[in-house]
Amino acid sequence: MNRRVLVIIILCMLVWFPIHGLTAYADTPQLTGEKQFQTNFADTVLTGGITYTQQYVQLESYWNVTSFDIHLDYQISQLLRIERSSVTVFVNGTPIHSFRPKQEDTGLQQLTIPVPKTALIPGINTIMVQGHLETTSPVADHVCLPTDTRDNWLQIAKSSRITVRYVPELNSTRIGDFYERFIGLDTVKNGENAIAVALDSEPAELEAATYALSGLAKANKVTDKPIPLVPYSDALFQQKQMVILIANYDHLPEMWKPVRDETDLDQNALIQLQEAGGHSVLVVTSKDAALLVKAGRFIANTSLLSQVSEARIAISNNTEVDTPPVNVSSQMSLTETGDKLTGDRHREKAYFISLPGNRSIAEGSKLRINYRYARNVDWDRSLVTVLINDSPIGSKKLSTELADADHLELTIPKTLNISGNFTIKVAFDLELKNAGCIENQDQMPWAYIEKDSILQLNTKDRTDLLFNNYPYPFLRDGSYNQVAVVLPDQRDTYLYQTLTNVFNLLGRYAQTNTGEVLFYQDTVKESLLKGREIIAIGSPQANSIIKVNNRSLYFQYDSAGQGFVSNEKMSIESSYGKRIGSLQLLDSPYEQGYGMLALTGSTPEYTYLASKLIGSEGSLWKVFGDGAVTDKDGHVQAFRFKKTTTKQPSNVISDVLERKDVLGFMTAATLVVLLVIISLLLMLRKYKKKRRDRG
């Protein structure tokens, strides 16, 4: 009897648990199987007596970390004194492991260090490897000798890595959570996300997808892995777990059409998160093309997207979706709260400054660093140095009189030719007296960068049609600059891969979701291309815009339009001309003052090959001038064909117009001069009138 009762109780529990497990899914996140994420160190050499390197690892909010391991592959100097040398690993400032290199082995050594979960924090974690390296030993006890650092080195190989094992939470029903997962490190690195449109999508659908892609590309933390733009198919979900599907309502597959009544889609666009077979799909749809485009801009405003806590949101004509405009000439603080640097010898802090790609630093830009520091340093050897993109622009010695309130004011040299994003680095060399005779303390000496340190940034446009200034002319002040994309008559996978490359990089530079990108077929009227920056994609046989303007190309096609021919810069064998792709940045043939990018090759494959050159910042450096070709073997040849480039009417005038302080001073001075002249005229008139009265 007891056995029968026990069986009944077990059966009841088996029935009860699944039911309540499904009910709890909506309230508490559940976990799936364990996964692994790995990132490698850069190839680094640590030199000097006490030296360090840092690595940053982000832990996504939906990861439940089960283990965090640091694997070091390193090599040491053959002259190192093992008994007096050590290496310490810090995680978020907390030491977690110290060791001495092996005595018997000076080749490549390996070590795996498990990190306790208590040392980890949500978001970005800082891993620091610090070496205390010595190659000399005192000849006698209690004798102080200078530390010899010439032969002190420890090399960390690029095979060193950080491995994170985690259990991801199950997908939630919140759009904001979908966004975090869509751009998550593991999702992007494993190629599990995509933005999908219909294979024969309409211009409004491509426009909306382009805006969405641009905003998400800027938020993507994996710089060498683009977010793909793909045509929709059922096979898409064999590889992709997170998909944003953008389509007019009539183009939506039946399984992804909104469950609710769709009559409101005449007056609204709908963004709705749906789940099927373990896949998450964010459906963006409307019956109105303009509203669909507006929904694409909403996706591009990732700040708004991350705030949505529901599974469904409607976008109407009254919905605000635009991002704030970019201020490109202003005073900006380097740090909001101030930054402290501790420890002796070389310590540095870097600040990333965001600037539109077409803007460069103008004359008169200044940097003021306010700082204070400890009084126990060697004043003869301690100093502060400021670097921009690792180029030093000035230094100053530390002094005991100014230790509590020192500052360094520098003018940014015009010769640096800085455009786009750049980094300011403040480096302190805090040297101690008799450093070889005292025990090193991590908290002394110290330096502190004040929060009122500012950058006075004056910028100007770079308007030459050269790849050196790319993404100009397609972006201006962080927004799309009236772009027209002319597509070939046939669309295939290569075309969407080409669009993926073009707009992933442009999206990284785009700082707003404003501006305009319109899509046209190659039969577009010339009047619609006036006043626009043009991107023409395809071969002469597939795109009539390329065919009609073949004579204007720097790399021209043969009479049959099947391959490139030689020009004044490069000799091209006939069969080789059919196996290369080309990028060419030309003056627009439809209106003066605008540009055209010809992305072209004899087949869609070679057009896609050319687009890879402008697909990431890692490949953009390979192209310069205004024309480049590439082949399957990775050979890239770039040239400058323009003899002269369009300049601004007057460098002096343009510089004055860019400098608000100088412009204000000149305006005030002009007004004073006018007042003086008017006063003199009035006095002269009064004097003449008196003379007439007396006469």
From TrEMBL:
Lineage, top ranks: Bacteria, Bacillati, Bacillota, Bacilli, Bacillales
A GO-annotated cellular component: plasma membrane
Location of the protein in the cell: Cell membrane
InterPro entries, per database record: Cell_synthase_bac (IPR018513)
Keyword Transmembrane helix: yes
Spans traversing the lipid bilayer: 662-684
Protein name: Cellulose biosynthesis cyclic di-GMP-binding regulatory protein BcsB
A Pfam cross-reference name: BcsB
Gene3D superfamilies: Galactose-binding domain-like
Main subcellular location of this protein, as a coarse class: membrane
Keyword Membrane: yes
Entry membrane topology: Single-pass membrane protein
Entry keywords, A to Z: Cell membrane, Membrane, Transmembrane, Transmembrane helix
Any Gene Ontology biological process: UDP-alpha-D-glucose metabolic process
